[in-house]
Design goal:
4-stranded antiparallel beta sheet; about 260 residues; about 30% strand; alpha+beta
Length: about 260
């Protein structure tokens, strides 16, 4: 990932139509925590403005995607309402919920850990140590329901995606690719390197909202044994085990 840049170095936000009923407001051209901070701050302002006709706000790596009802608010009018909300928007320190996610890195749940170790020149336990040794920023949630894109991966662990994607990745799989790490909230195909698995449900329709993580949250991965994983997985299956967020922590955020 790019190091944080001064706000003056960031691009002027651009309005980009997306299909017939969505508008993207783009703040940068790279995956950058300061750009993410601006996206999240703008999302907070738009939500607080309660503009009639807006259906959903979706923060992404570089932009805020705004779904709207064109019958309730034409695009030109929506732009006029949004422009004043950009005034004075700056990146600064702010808090997001902190989640500690248990992860078992045992070889039976980490089919790519040995290969990652070989390609990075690290012993498997050093890969685990580096992966679990930082606090990650949730840039966005997408691809699958509840699937978080987390940065910033330690540079030593940065690898391209697998040459041959898997047709079936188990739910809870913790994976890395490029400069990101992620958790497959649901079973699906996938092309990232699988280095562990969590018993924690990140998507649960019994909860409101169903997704555990949200853009702007912070994540720490905590290694657990295979026995602990089995116990927590059984508890998770019955709905007894759920993650609880801790107090907000300071991170690169944005002022409103």
């Amino acid at each position: 990932m790019s190091p944080p840049r001064p706000d003056s170095a960031l691009m002027t936000p651009r309005f980009l139509p997306s299909a017939d009923a969505a508008l993207a407001v783009e703040f940068g051209e790279e995956v950058d925590r300061r750009v993410s901070a601006l996206v999240l701050a703008f999302a907070a302002r738009v939500k607080a403005a309660a503009i009639a006709g807006i259906v959903e706000l979706v923060p992404t790596f570089r932009s805020l995607l705004i779904h709207y009802d064109p019958m309730a608010v034409p695009q030109a009018e929506l732009k006029q309402r949004l422009v004043p909300l950009l005034s004075g928007l700056t990146a600064t320190a702010s808090g997001g919920r902190l989640w500690r996610i248990p992860v078992c890195y045992h070889q039976s749940l980490a089919p790519d850990l040995a290969e990652v170790a070989d390609r990075t020149g690290l012993a498997p336990d050093r890969v685990v140590e580096r992966h679990s040794g930082v606090t990650y920023h949730v840039y966005m949630v997408g691809f699958l329901p509840g699937y978080p894109y987390l940065g910033d991966l330690p540079p030593k662990l940065a690898l391209p995606r697998r040459d041959s994607p898997r047709t079936n990745v188990p739910a809870g799989s913790v994976a890395i690719a490029t400069t990101l790490t992620a958790v497959y909230a649901l079973e699906s195909p996938g092309g990232w390197h699988l280095i562990g698995r969590t018993p924690a449900p990140l998507w649960d329709l019994r909860r409101d909202p169903p997704a555990t993580l949200a853009a702007g949250d912070q994540v720490r991965f905590e290694p657990i044994s295979l026995d602990s994983y089995d116990v927590l997985a059984a508890s998770s299956a019955t709905g007894e085990f759920r993650l609880e967020a801790e107090d907000p922590v300071l991170a690169v955020g944005a002022s409103e």
